[in-house]
Amino acid sequence: MDLLIRNGVLVSGGRMQQADLAVAGSRVKDIGRRLRPGKGTRVLDAAGRYVLPGIIDAHTHYRLHTRGTVTAEDFFTGTRAAACGGVTTVIDFADQVPGFTLAEAARWRMADAAGACVDFGLHMVVTRVTPGLELELAQLVAMGIPSVKVFTTYRQAGYMLEEEDITRLLVMARAVGALVTVHAEDNGVVEESEARMRREGKTAPGDHGLSRPAAAEARAIRRVIELARREEAQVYFVHVSTAEGCRAIREAREAGQPVWGETCPHYLLLNEDEYRYEEPHRFIMTPPLRTATDQAALWEGLGDGVLQVVATDHCAFSLEQKGEAQTCFDTLPGVPGTETLLPLVYSYGPAMGRFSLPAMVDLLSTMPAKIFGLYPRKGDLQVGSDADVVVFNPEAPRELRARALHSAAGYTPFEGMTVRGYPEVTILRGKVIYEHGRFCGQEGDGRFIRGCV
Question: Partner of 57 at 20 to 30 A CA spacing, among 198, 208, 341, 373?
């Protein structure tokens, strides 16, 4: 036994229990009452604390090259911030590259991630359905990358897949055991909105909320659900932001379809009013922030199981980068969020009675692990699982300030918000990488973790 966490309340597997947790090497060795340390065992006293499985942020964008620039965040700085927030695994993205196989593109992205401080997986972005793609998908799944992402918008940027190609990809994914994840916004609605805004001169950063209407998301989600139903394929929707989108997923799940949904803290806690204030570019992301009604529907969806995952869509440009543009259409979209994921969801979820603490662990750890094939190695505290652990103090109120956070973006969209609890210790495969406000891991501590849907 190398590490013993004593006197805490373990929250995992849908329940809470007063128990000790023993770690040997990189794995959980034992769970029980009054476990005794061996010679040389480090003991952490977790009295009055929750002991949680490491958080999984299933949607990040580190070192993202886009629009002629690159995010301020690379894999080292991004995952360092993650570790300081109790996140022990992230799932980032590799892009399909013309003239190269998906496997080759994935290996290049793994090289980008060599400096990661926490473990990582990958989704593959597919922007072209090419001859031989099914074989490439099978190779990707064999590598441990069982999920792909498609866009129903961004036609001009070259990301959008037409319906015919989405259908073909759903069939291929079903055949090889992959999961299709979808950025769902109807491109026709988005382009029509942009054209109208330009005619009316509504192009300032503060007009961003008008540029991608709620109807665009709902229409695209319903259409992709129908395509998936026809092909008997499963599908996962990223960053759901609207009540209507949530309703479409609810109806599909009630009809028995294997449909999954994810939302993000900024859609739960911030709304379109932010675009009326100073520095609206701080809050530009796609989809944009929505209404209070949409927020209520998303919280309800998390509480009753319609949405299974809260992830961050962490895409961290600096304020200098975001402030260079003069219009909402040219402003770099994306906000940082991984480090604040756990304290925000705890403070505005279980601490406010919206759902239970075990339900929060499902949303932030267990369900991402199950959906993306990392379970039970990740997402749970059981004997044999990776010793990815967060010691969380539920009575540690603090005001979120960028100067106290670790993202290279240098700001947080949640500036000034108060959280009720905060992680005190983060453990990655048995190694303490964050402790009482100090990052103590190392660049390169993270490993690629194979998934299997």
Answer: 208
Whole-number average pLDDT of the chain = 98
In angstroms, rounded to a whole number, what is the distance separating the alpha carbons of residues 326 and 309? 34
Q: Which domains does the chain have, with CATH numbers?
A: 3-52+383-407+420-439 (2.30.40.10), 55-371 (3.20.20.140)
Report how far residue 95's alpha carbon sits from residue 279's, in angstroms, rounded to the nearest whole number: 31
Burial class (CB in 10 A: 0-12, 13-18, 19+), 159: buried
Beta strands in 62-126 (DSSP E): 65-66, 69-70, 87-95, 119-125
C-alpha span between 3 and 429 (Å, rounded) = 11
Which pair of structure tokens corresponds to residue 76?
A: 């080292």
Q: Quote the CA–CA distance of 162 and 354 in Å, as a whole number.
A: 38
Q: What is the per-residue pLDDT across 79-130, written as a single tens digit (0 to 9) for each?
A: 999 999 999 999 999 999 999 999 999 999 999 999 999 999 999 999 999 9
The residues pairing with 392 across neighbouring beta strands, listed in sequence order, are 50, 423
Contacts of 161 (CB under 8 A, 6+ apart): 126, 127, 128, 129, 150, 151, 152, 169
Alpha carbon distance 430, 329 (integer Å): 45
Residue 258: CA atoms inside 13 Å, Cβ hemisphere, count?
A: 14
Give tens-digit pLDDT for 425-448.
999 999 999 999 999 999 999 999
Owner of token pair 């009054």: 34
Whole-number Å distance between alpha carbons of 10 and 382: 10
Count CB atoms within 10 A of the CB of residue 171: 15
Neighbours of 101 (CB within 10 A): 17
The whole-angstrom separation of Cα 222 and Cα 215 is 11
**Cβ neighbours for 314, distance < 8 A, ≥ 6 positions apart:** 57, 59, 60, 61, 62, 73, 78, 334, 335, 336, 337, 338
What is the rounded CA–CA span in Å between residue 14 and residue 19? 15
Residues 6+ apart with CB under 8 A from 144: 121, 373, 448, 449, 450, 451, 452
42 CB neighbour count, 10 Å cutoff: 12
